[in-house]
Every structure is written in C-alpha cells, then in structure tokens.
Design goal:
The chain has twelve helices and 14 strands. By secondary structure, the protein is α/β, with parallel strands linked by helices. Strand 2, helix 4 and strand 3 form a beta-alpha-beta unit. The radius of gyration is 21 Å and the shape is globular. Pyridoxal-5'-phosphate binds next to helix 3 and helix 4.
Length: about 375
C-alpha cells in the first residue's frame, strides 16, 4: 500500500509538473515577480470560474478577511458575529481591527454557524456576520442573507475551505460559495482545495465600489501613485504563486470530484456504525467539496482512536480541539457556556481522516477497517 498522507501535494504536482515548471521558469525569465501579467490573468480566470465580478488577489487568507473588513469600513466597537467552531484566523482579524467578536454556536449536522444563534446575538452594535463554509460545505446562506437584510448587516463569507462548492438557494439559483455575501475571502495555502506553493489569498465581491476601495487598501491605501488616501496594508499575491494557481484552477472541479469520491467511499464503508456519525451533506452532492472529511466519534473513544492512528502511522486531524470562546486570547465574560452546547460537544468528538485528490481504494479500506475494529472493541 502507498504510504497514507493527510494531504498528498507531491502526487498532485507530478500530474502537472511540466506545465508548472515551465510557467515558473517563464516568470523568472520575465522578472515580473510582483503584479505581473500572471496575477492579472489568474484574477480574470478566477472571476470567470466563480462568476463573481471582482477578484482582488492578496497575500493570504487571513489578510483577505482583514482587508474585506477594512473595505467595509467597520469601526472599533462594531460587533461582528462569527462561528465558535472554526480556525482562529476568522476571529483573530476581528479582534485585531478592534472590532468586537461575537462568537455563536454551530449546527450539529453541518458544523456551520447556526442562523438561530445569529439572531439571538444581534444587538444595535452588530454590523456584520462572518459565516465560514467549514470543511468545504456551504453555510445556510439563505437564512444568513435574510437575517442580514432584516438587520442591515454585511455578510463576509470566509470561503478558505469552500472554494468550488455550490450553494443552491431556495429560489432555484445556484451560486458558488464566496459569490453570495457582500464580500468573501479565500486562502491558497498549499493544503487548501486550490493551493499554491507558498502563501496566497483573494477577496471576492460583486460590488464595484467596494472592489475599488479594496484594491487601494491592499496597496498601501494608494488609488493614485504615491497618494495615500486611506490607511492600507501591503498584501500581494506574487507572480510565481499566480502561475501555479493558473495551472491548477482548470483542474479544480476534477480535484473536488476526487475528494467527493473518496468521501463517498469513506461514508459507505462507515455506514450504520453505532458510534460514528459520518458527514452530513445537503441533498445535492455538489454543495460539499470536502476540504476535510470529519467524523463524529460518539462513544468517548475519539482520543484513544487518535492515539491508535498515531501508533499505526495513519495521519489524522482534530479540527478543532478547543472552542474559540475558550481560547485564552478570546475568552470573555460576555459568553455563557449554555450558548455553546454544540461546539463544546463537537470538540470532543470530531476526527478528520486523510483527504486529498490521490487517495486510493486500498488506503480507504485500510483506514475505515482500522476505525471500525477499534471503535467496537
Ligand atoms: C486557512 C484558513 C484561513 C486562513 O488562511 P491563510 O491563508 O492561512 O491565512 C482562514 N479561515 C479559514 C476557515 C481557514 O481554513
């Protein structure tokens, strides 16, 4: 059996090696390392793929979130509601901008922000909601956009884990995640579904004015050379990363389908297990791109299973082991444990399996058999 990896970037690279090597070489020869033609071409190609009017490339997914919030003109003291169960970047940038993070609970099936919890958390100071399409499945955007409309709030989608996923709205339209809210962010960190060979990120919006504001913010607040109208940052995608992304974007749907196939095999093999909850998927399978394949182990043996995997050398992940409201940096008297029952439970049960585009049947059978044998012992 091939050695099992959590993410197999090498196997993926082998298949696009010539294209990637040649285009990196061309960037070097061109010396257009920053803001070169490759960055602009990638921007256009991503706009087409997502069917979004404006893509603004930047240095990473954390910057993308921060810049989106700066672009919306959020001010210290404004409250921003986001999920308690996500990667810390989401809450980090809210705090960094001196906005007030308001963490709320998630849904037990999708692990995504719970619209009912959002409603309860709204105050006159609330300005924005940040849904995260966690593990690659869209949050309940119909409900979130409706709440935002009623309360006049911005919606910033954190699409770092969801690129390529579709959202089917109740009105019959299908939209890519990241093209639904007022603005969205994504990350091209190597292990993301569309990853480059270093750091990278992007902001998306259909709002031309906001796109203009953001293009200035990423470039030191300059709208005219050496005229600094607002306080900005320096956040750029470099040409070498853009050329890698251009090589990979045409394969993104194929990559996501390979993930979905692996996920289906995992789910079939683990079906009807008393102590395992396999990932919930909305009725249409294209709504989940499986950035992670995350189980719930419900008989208290999650940590023992992790140790067993460790012993056997099978990679795995626990995303995420601590609720954000319990992290030292974000604890706050405002929070009431009674409002976080789902997240508090999930952190004890979640267990993510190896997930990438190169998993084969033999590996999947070995992984699932190991889990079933151990859990029922
Ligand atoms: C990866 C990730 C980010 C941050 O992206 P970086 O490119 O690593 O800065 C933000 N939010 C979520 C949900 C992520 O998974």
């Amino acid at each position: 059996m091939k050695k099992i990896q959590m993410v197999d970037l090498k196997g993926q690279y082998e298949q696009i090696k010539d294209r990637v090597n040649n285009s990196i070489q061309e960037v070097i020869e061109s010396t257009a390392f920053i803001n070169g033609p490759e960055v602009h071409a990638f921007q256009k190609e991503l706009e087409d793929y997502l069917d979004v009017a404006h893509v603004i490339p930047c240095a990473n997914g954390t910057d993308a979130l921060q810049i989106a919030m700066m672009g919306l003109g959020l001010k210290p003291g404004d409250e921003v509601i986001t999920a308690d169960f996500t990667f810390a970047a989401t809450v980090e940038v809210i705090a960094l901008l001196n906005l007030t993070p308001v963490l709320v609970d998630v849904e037990p099936d999708t692990f995504n922000i719970d619209p009912e919890a959002i409603k309860k958390a709204i105050t006159p100071k609330t300005k924005a909601i940040v849904p995260v399409h966690l593990f690659g499945q869209s949050a309940n955007m119909d409900a979130i956009m409706q709440i935002a409309k009623e309360h006049n709030l911005f919606v910033i989608e954190d699409n770092a884990q969801g690129i390529g996923a579709n959202y089917h709205a109740a009105n019959g339209t299908t939209t890519k995640t990241g093209a639904i809210g007022h603005v969205a962010s994504t990350s091209f960190f190597p292990s993301k579904n569309l990853g480059c060979y270093g750091d990278g990120g992007a902001i998306f919006t259909n709002d031309a004015d906001l796109a203009h504001t953001i293009r200035g913010i990423v470039n030191h607040g300059m709208y005219k050379r050496y005229h600094h109208d607002v306080v900005g940052v320096n956040s750029r995608l470099d040409s070498i990363q853009a050329t890698v992304l251009r090589a990979k974007l045409p394969h993104l749907d194929t990559y996501n389908n390979a993930r979905k196939n692996a996920a289906e095999k995992y789910t079939t093999a683990l079906a009807n297990q008393e102590h395992i909850i396999t990932p919930y998927i909305h009725s249409e399978s294209d709504t989940h791109v499986f950035h992670q394949y995350t189980l719930r182990i419900t008989n208290g043996k999650r940590d023992a299973l992790a140790a067993h995997f460790q012993e056997l050398g099978i990679p795995h992940g626990i995303y995420y082991p601590i609720p954000l409201h319990s992290q030292k940096a974000y604890v706050d008297d405002r929070y009431d444990e009674a409002n976080f029952t789902v997240t508090n439970q999930l952190v004890k049960e979640v267990f993510s399996l190896p997930m990438h585009t190169e998993l084969d049947d033999e590996q999947i059978t070995y992984i699932t058999k190991t889990i079933i044998d151990f859990i029922n012992k």
